[in-house]
Amino acid sequence: MVELQAPPELSAIVPVGRRYADAVVLHAEYKAGLDALGHSYELIYVLDGPCEEFAAGLRALLANGERFTVISLTRSFGESTALMAGFEHSTAEFILTLPAYHQVVGSELEKLVEALSDCDLAIGRRWPRAGGAFERMRRRLFHGLLGSVTGVRFRDLGCGVRAFTRRVLDDIQLYGDQHRFLAVLAERQGFTVREVDLRQSPADR
Asked: Cα 205 to chain center, whole Å?
């Protein structure tokens, strides 16, 4: 009799596009943060077109015994398509999306996952946030304009660190640049959305 293996509790998806950090360094940080959660998980990297340097780093990690899934798209389709490709290959009830570059400290992932106890989608807000006066003004203008148009107010939609229940992407199909507005789309679909303050990575400058 063959025993069926239970699916992991969490699927972490990393879409890799034009911008990415060193694969080995990034993987070590994310793995440490995920291991600290105390939940079973699967890690899925989606290469959105040619990402040879990052792919080489992943191959080196696999050769050293690291375990994760790599999905390679034939060309660059955009982050939304890469996220949906990762989602289709995922098996867990809870999904975590992580950028291919440093945005938040890996140890902060626990706060985001814990927030799912009372919401459907938790999005990271990098805080305290580095950056000059012009950057702060630009962010305020963008989020202020978006809030006035949609009636939904967030403060860091540029953060790609999110955690959500599986039914969010069962109901919302992303394409184009819609990944940036997942929180807005989810809110308008009736899902409960929370922003969670996470420490910004020192490398995110």
From this structure: 18
Q: Please name every residue paired with 160 in a beta bridge, in sequence order, or none if there are none.
A: none
pLDDT, one tens digit per residue, over 78-121 is: 999 999 999 999 999 999 999 999 999 999 999 999 999 999 99
Cα Rg, the chain, nearest whole Å: 17
pTM: 0.94
State the alpha helices, DSSP H only, in the chain. 23-35, 52-63, 79-89, 109-114, 133-150, 166-171, 182-188
Q: What is the pLDDT of residues 15-53, one digit of tens each?
A: 999 999 999 999 999 999 999 999 999 999 999 999 999
Distance of CA 64 to the CA centre of its chain: 25
Reference 199, options 94, 120, 103, 117; nearest CA is 103
Write phi, then psi, for 191 (nearest 5 degrees).
-80, 150
Strand order of the sheet with strand 94-97? 69-72, 41-47, 10-16, 94-97, 162-165, 121-126, 193-198
